[in-house]
Amino acid sequence: MAKKVGIEVSIAIADAAKLANVDVVAAYPITPQTHIVEHLAQLVADGELDAAYIPVESEHSVMSACCGASAVGARTFTATAGQGLELMHEVLYVASAMQFPIVMTVANRALSAPLSVWGDHSDAMAVRDTGWIQIFVENGQEAVDNVLCAFRIAEDQRVLLPVMVHLDGFYLSHVIEPIVLPEQSEVDQFIPTYQYPLPLNPDKPVTMGAFAPPFIYYEAKKAQEVNLRAAKEVIIECWNEFGNRFKRYYSPVESYRCEEAKVLLLTMGSFSETAMTAIDKMRGEGKQVGLLRLRLWRPFPFKEIRQAVKNAEVLIVLDRALSFGGPGGPVCSEIRSALYQQDRKPKVISFIGGLGGRDITVAGFEEIITKGIEISQTGSDQEFELFGVKE
Amino acid sequence: MTKREDELTWKDLRIGSIVAEPGSASQYQTGTWRSQRPLFDSSRCIKCGMCYIFCPEGCVEQNTEGYFEANLFYCKGCGICARECWPQAITMVEEEE
Questions:
Q1: Which residue of B6, B8, B9, B10 to mutate against A (max A Cβ within 10 Å)?
Q2: What pLDDT, on the 0 to 100 scale, is given for residue B42?
Q3: Quick one: B54 exposed, middle or buried, by C-beta within 10 A (0-12, 13-18, 19+)?
Q4: By CA distance, what is B13's nearest residue in A?
Q5: DSSP bridge partners of A351
Q6: Hey, are the CB atoms on A210 and B25 less than 8 Å from each other?
Q7: Of A137, A222, A330, A387, whose CB is crowded by the most CB atoms within 10 A?
Q8: What CATH number corresponds to the domain at position A31?
Q9: What is the structure's pLDDT at B23?
Q10: What range does the domain containing A11 cover?
């Protein structure tokens, strides 16, 4: 029987990759994800994990090595953050288009300059359109659970796509939490044996990554789009199956105290837990507020978002990234676009906050909600509000 | 696959656009890129094979009489064979119409 232990989230993630019995880890250290790959290196060196550990010279090589490993049919894992994710950028598109089911945890970090190792979602938003399945988690347990789910989703023969599991750098990666690590036998039953349908094999040669002239490139992109969208049903199926087995439940859009809520706040990642405390406080004061947490970022859960907000009058979206010179928050801009054609929709107010490791406290979330309600009534000449910036 | 390449739809593609038949690149006609073609004059050709060696496309072949000629299905008309042919047996001519 699995028991709860106090463990650093990064170490628990590495242990989850070990439980998933990965074959290959290619990695380059970068704060704040270093402890994940450092612990995996230790596990391999100590003979506790029978895997090939490839220390490479950059993140571009990390993702290239992961593609190669995945192409021969190896179960492949890596982790990165911030600039590291940016350096592997071009290869991310290759991994998804070539349908390599790599699993990668991203300890979300701000992007330079100025240099910052602290957390926000700028790195995640910069890789939004790379064709990966992308899941955000709120705490250490969710990180472990979703790393396990990620392997099952990625390697499902109906999907065969890489998966990023986003967790907030430092806020999650470096904290010690009580976490249940499932037993090996439970994980073995949950994640089936993996077989890539057309692996690199000298006895049965195939061409991977061939060039596509204009007569076929477009069709390849359509196939990719259909596949990623269709993955949503498999992701939901996997989370349901995980819930049946482990009694912890996940869904694309999760709600907290949304019953009869006229005003909804939407967050992604670990800030959601602070926001929950703010919601509790405001509910205690008799205010009809609730919280939505967007867990599945790609494929985007249009149906679930529309369903979740249909009775609300105001929807306040907190982004932790800034699209310079554009609509502001990438999450808010997608939600606005998802709701634009709907007959019944809330007023959508965009907030940006928590950039580069700036905290948002419980009182901060209360302020965001109060200000958001005010803007919904008075209107604003700004596309978005930058919360907590010193004027 | 039984369909011609240019008739393939998105549903016909294998996972990750993998090509499962070896050598399929030989079906790709690069000759359409050409704006000039090489003309081989067998009266000047000494069968040295320099054109064969230098052709970056590997599309110069030797015929049964031992003379060299370009396979125009692949020849991109780069003119390297004409430049390297020291007996000047190869002339590049415009592909007009």
A1: B10
A2: 94
A3: middle
A4: A220
A5: A318, A385
A6: yes
A7: A137
A8: 3.40.50.970
A9: 80
A10: 4-246
Q: What is the CATH number of the domain that holds A293?
A: 3.40.50.920
What is the architecture, at CATH level 2, of domain B28-94? Answer: 2-Layer Sandwich (3.30)
User: ipTM for the complex?
Assistant: 0.86
Same domain, A241 and A257: no
The closest CB to that of A99, out of B8, B15, B19, belongs to B15
pTM of the model: 0.93
Q: With respect to residue A117, please indicate whether it lies within any of the assigned structural domains.
A: yes
What's the structural domain count of chain A?
2
Interchain CB contact of A226 with B (< 8 Å) = yes
Shortest alpha-carbon distance between residue A226 and chain B (Å)? 10
Examine the domain organization and report whether A147 and A238 are in the same domain.
yes
A340-343: long-range pairs with CB below 8 Å, 24+: A342/A306, A342/A310
